[in-house]
Amino acid sequence: MRVYLHTFGCKANQYDTEAVRQALEASGATPVGDPALADAAIVNSCTVTHVAEAKMRGLVRRLARQRPALRTVVMGCAAALDDGAIARLPGVEAVVGGAEPSRVLAALGLSAPNAGELLRSFARGSRAWLKIQDGCDEHCTFCATTLARGANRSRPVDDLVAEAGLLAEQHEEIVLTGVHIGSYGRDGDGGMTLGRLVEELVRQVPRVRFRLSSVEATEVDPSLAELMIGEPLRLAPHLHAPLQSGSDRLLKRMGRHWYTARAYRDRIEWLAERLPRLGLGADVIVGFPGETARDHAATMELVSALPFTYLHVFPYSERPGASARRLGRPVDPPVAAARSAELRDLAASHRQRYQANRDGGPADVVLMARQAARFQGLTEDYLTVYLPADRARPPRLPATLRRRGGVLLAEAA
Ligand code: SF4
Fold this sequence. Notes:
By secondary structure, this protein is α/β, with parallel strands linked by helices. The protein has helices at 11-26, 50-66, 77-80, 101-106, 145-149, 157-168, 194-204, 222-230, 248-253, 261-274, 293-305, 333-358; strands spanning 2-7, 30-32, 40-45, 71-76, 92-97, 127-131, 133-134, 153-154, 173-177, 209-212, 238-240, 279-281, 283-286, 312-315, 362-371, 374-378, 384-388, 396-404, 407-412.
């Protein structure tokens, strides 16, 4: 059987698809990159925003139009919360909530002889994701992911060290991902934490660069900070720390009880003072029900004060089952759009300033892709850079950054 795989959403979803891909190959099926060549399709769905779900439904309909005989299985987060609407889409043979490979394959009449086997590689270039935990014990009022993925479940340290070892044979960078990675180990009684896990990975899996995917600022404990400060070639000095709002009033309405704007600011400033280079990003929601101009001003003030190098700005999206629906109407779209634009402009000026400061500085570059006459690479502090493809290059190399016309070039050292 030839199977087309498509993933919507986050790194945890992309990891889950890779686990399904590996199980498909072990079952004798053949993953194909083109649906025109496929007998079946597996679509890994996302429920973070209504846009993500609409795109998934659009793809499923397109597949059914182009290949009426195609058997489609929809898995993942939106599938987990499906009220029957996905099951009624054309060509959908099964809706499988979550991402258990054996359940997904069974929906196509296949069995997974390698169920639970460690992931050996990622069907993508030099970077791989490692899912360290799933689920979340929090209940942010705007979030459907916690509803779709359930409670926090940490994977055993030994499995993660072994899997990272396998991935390190194929990849230069391993990104630690999940749904709420800062809660790693909290479901166990061994006193394990994200910081202790990363220490173990760096100690037992040599050479490879680890990177944290999204992590709450106040969950960056001292051991993590020390690794970023002391070993930036082993743990990338990059934080994607969801902020969502700079207003404590709004953080309360969002159910984000574990930090205040002050606590967030203190942790980031503490880290930024100790790191010569820091890639710093955040998610911010605009237009949340009840958001006032004053709340927005607090967010603008905090974003201006902190050394962000990029920002993901999301307009509030009402989600099925999420309690924010009971908090009143979202902010009028034109107002939300204007506020989003202000934040994006602010983020762009931060990015320009940071890139200008990096001009002439050293970088640890992992090559990600080749584009015509140049390679695209990623630095330790999460900057996209380019090198001429005029000769073969090692997958990871030290370089000096040169800023030319708003683009960062990497000159091999
Ligand atoms: S921390 Fe909040 S936003 Fe993140 S997964 Fe948990 S409930 Fe959702």
